[in-house]
Amino acid sequence: MAAPQAPDDRQAAFDALRAAVEGEHTTSELRHHLTHAEAAVHGGASAEENALLRRAADLLLRRERGVGVSAPPPGPPRRSRLARTGRGGKSTAGRAAEAVADLLDVLDRRRGHLGRGEQQRLVTRLQDQARAAEPWLTRAQRRQITAWTKRTRPAAPPVAQVSVAPAASVERAPAQPAAPRERRRDAPRRPAPAAVPASVDAVADAARDVLEHTARLQATIPWDRLCAQVKGLRELSETEQRRALESASARSRSTQPLTALITTGSGTPHPHYQHLASAGDVPAAQKAWQKAVADVHSTYRPSPPPPGARPTG
Q1: Number of folded domains in the chain?
Q2: Which of 32, 110, 217, 254 could bridge to 299 as Cys pair (CB 3.0-4.6 Å)?
Q3: pTM for this one?
C-alpha cells in the first residue's frame, strides 16, 4: 500500500503536476509528476484534483500516441548506440533503462511499506535490468541503485558470545551416550503454522505495479508468473483475487482492465478477465479481449528517452 502523504507533500505534488501540464515540460517529466500526484491522493481526491489528474493523463496519452501534439523540430544527426539498433525499434538496453526507471519509482513510492522478501525481489529485478541498461543509466540512477542494493543486503547473523570458565574450576562429568529416539511410524505430524493472509489492498498495489510494467513491455503475463511476482495473490480466495485485480485496474490510467494482460498456460484470456469483463460468446469474447490488450498496450506504450538520457562511457 502506498505511503501516506503529508498535506504539504500533497500540495507540492499537485503544484508540480499543474506546472508540468501548463508549461513546456517533457513527456518524461509529465509522467513523473503524474505518478507522484496519483500516489499522493491514494486515500481520495477532491473534484479539482481529479480534474487535474484527468487533464494530465489525457495530455500524456496524446503525447504518447502523437495525437494533437506538434512534433519538436528535428535536431542535428548524431551517432549513438540507439541509432545503431536498426529498424527493429528500441534496443534491449533502451527497454531495460525504462524498466529500471519503473522499478526505482515503485521502490521510492512504497519505501517503508515493503516486506523484506518483496523488497529483495524488486531489488534483484532492478539489478538484472541495470546490468542490461548499463550504457543508458544516469549518474542519479546509479546512485539510487547502489543505495537500494546496500539497504537490501541481508544482514550477517550475530555472533554468539560464549563465556568460558577457567579450566581449574570446571568439573567434567563423564560423557553418557544419548539414548536413541525412536519415532513411531503412526505418530501424527505436527501441523505446519498457517500462513498469515496478505491484505487485499497490498496485493492490489503489487498487482498493479506488475501489470503496468507488463503493459510498458507490450506483453502479456501468465497467471502462474503473476502469482510468483505478487506475494499473497495465490493464497487469496477466488472472490478476493477478483476484488484485488478489479481494484488494481481501477487505480490505473487505462480505460480497459489491466486483467486483460493475464493469460492461462495456453495463452488464452484468464477466467478472472472474462468474469470482470462479463464476456459473451467465444468469438466475440476473443475479439473483445484482443482489442482490450491492444488498448492497454497503447495507453502504456513508452515514449522515446528524454534528451538528457544519453549513453555514458
Answers
A1: 3
A2: 254
A3: 0.39
